[in-house]
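FORM 7B: Structural annotation worksheet

SECTION A. Query
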Amino acid sequence: MIAQIDAGSSAATMSLLREFLLSETAMIEERIGQVGVLTPEERGLSRTKIAIASRQALSSTQRLFAALGGSLLPEGTRIERLFRDIHAMSSHFLLQPEPISEAYGRLLLGLELAPGTRL
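SECTION B. Predicted structure
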């Protein structure tokens, strides 16, 4: 029963995250179409939300894998590749919530960004 709960919860979470990413992308495109560039605060907010969504996707994937066990990933299958891809993606600096949230928090608090900070 736990596997079914995790499967259902993970599928719903992934659907929610996909809808969020599509919506966020549309908002960014619309805003850039209006003013040409996002403000640092807008970039910081958007990147923080995307990094949090990435972390949620990884967590959901891990939960599903733990519930279903290693047989979920037969070598050479598409699902094995997707599992590896989400782990590789989640390690990218711009998808790590902590450094992005720190930079965004500094903007919100009126503090200077550290040298070399990317938003």
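SECTION C. Observations
The radius of gyration is 17 Å. The first helix runs from residue 2 to 35.

SECTION D. Sign-off
Analyst initials: ____
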